[in-house]
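Reviewer 2 asked us to include a model.

Predict the structure of this chain.
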Amino acid sequence: MSAYVVVNIDVLDERAALAYAAVAQRSVLDHGGRYLVAGPTPEPVEGTWDSGRFVVIEFPDMDRVREWYDSPEYRRAREIREGAMRVRMLFAEGAPPEGFSLPA
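Predicted model (structure tokens):
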């Protein structure tokens, strides 16, 4: 089942963020990831969303997400972004096509 990485980003240093993005993007693609959403955070429909940028990445499964996150390539990307970006990241497994089950 597909798995997703949801990321909120605040950039503190644009130059370092660009260096991070180049390394991070290559690592995502090399591990079978596919960008679904990437760019400025859109205006929320409800509530607040306190980040400047928003990314959603799809991977074939959760094992691939963890393989990517723990890879030497992505560890390098994390080192590059240290102090240059605030990143909040969630890993989530996809739901079956029929939706989720409500508790009985």
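DSSP finds three helices and four strands in the chain. Helices lie at 14-30, 62-69, 72-81. We have added this to the supplementary material.
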